[in-house]
Design a protein that fits this description.
The complex is a heterodimer of chains A (about 110) and B (about 110).
Chain A lengths: L4 E3 L2 E4 L5 E6 L6 E7 L6 E7 L2 E5 L6 E5 L5 E5 L8 E8 L8 E2 L3 E5 L1
Parallel strand pairs in A: 2-11
Antiparallel strand pairs in A: 1-3, 3-8, 4-5, 4-9, 5-6, 7-8, 9-10, 9-11
Chain B lengths: L3 E2 L5 E4 L4 E7 L6 E7 L6 E6 L3 E5 L2 E6 L4 E6 L8 E8 L8 E2 L3 E6 L1
Parallel strand pairs in B: 2-11
Antiparallel strand pairs in B: 1-3, 3-8, 4-5, 4-9, 6-7, 7-8, 9-10, 9-11
The chains are: A mainly beta (about 110), B mainly beta (about 110).
């Protein structure tokens, strides 16, 4: 079975632009979470979706938004990019029950110039 | 106090030694605990999870959980240079939480 997939793998944008990151969860998983990881830090929670509904939101500005589609894939959108948005963006998939394991995709490395 | 704390390291051990990685957490209601390994430039991969007090062993890895003292540790026996990575502790803060909180990770270096 395929694991979590993310696209693109790398992305270079300039300040003020918009970016869309995509994620497909493990087959059978209904929950997708998005994390931002900057160098030297652990992943910081951005959003979690379950059955197309937002189930959690981290402490990120409104420039960050996400959605989940009927096939459980997800998009993370970031508007008005700032230099500080440069990071590794991770998508994690789980079946959706409390306390269970999350499995990460390979990530999208975003560089904002 | 941060919710999940780890010493950033680096922790340096010789090949063949036992590496001990520690993590403390703030919420006594936490019920699920995870260790991930992250190689430089890669995404985290799950090593182990533990839910109950005590030890859980999987090959060269042992996770230890002490809820009374609010810490979870990971022991790596017979450390190999390929174990050199950052180890992330993740805790589902508050019972029933769907969202794990990650520590900043401990960098482990295993030298030949």
């Amino acid at each position: 079975d395929a694991g979590v997939t993310q696209s693109p793998t790398h992305l270079i944008k300039t300040r003020g632009q918009h970016v869309t990151l995509r994620c497909s969860p493990i087959s059978g998983h209904k929950s997708v979470s998005w994390y931002q990881q900057v160098l030297g830090q652990g992943p910081q929670f951005i959003f979690q979706y379950y059955e197309k509904e937002e189930r959690g939101r981290g402490n990120f500005p409104d420039r960050f938004s996400a959605r989940q589609f009927p096939n459980y894939s997800s998009e993370l959108n970031v508007n008005a990019l700032l230099l500080g948005d440069s990071a590794l963006y991770l998508c994690a998939s789980s079946a959706g029950n409390p306390g269970e394991t999350q499995y990460f995709g390979p990530g999208t490395r975003l560089l904002v110039l | 106090q941060k919710e999940v704390e780890q010493n950033s390291g680096p922790l340096s051990v010789p090949e063949g030694a036992i590496a001990s990685l520690n993590c403390t957490y703030s919420d006594r209601g936490s019920q699920s605990f995870f260790w991930y390994r992250q190689y430089s430039g890669k995404s985290p991969e799950l090593i182990m999870f533990i839910y109950s007090n005590g030890d859980k062993e999987d090959g060269r890895f042992t996770a230890q959980l002490n809820k009374a003292s609010q810490y979870v540790s990971l022991l790596i026996r017979d450390s190999q240079p390929s174990d050199s990575a950052t180890y992330l502790c993740a805790v589902n803060i508050r019972g029933g939480s769907y969202i794990p909180t990650f520590g900043r990770g401990t960098s482990l270096i295993v030298h030949p």
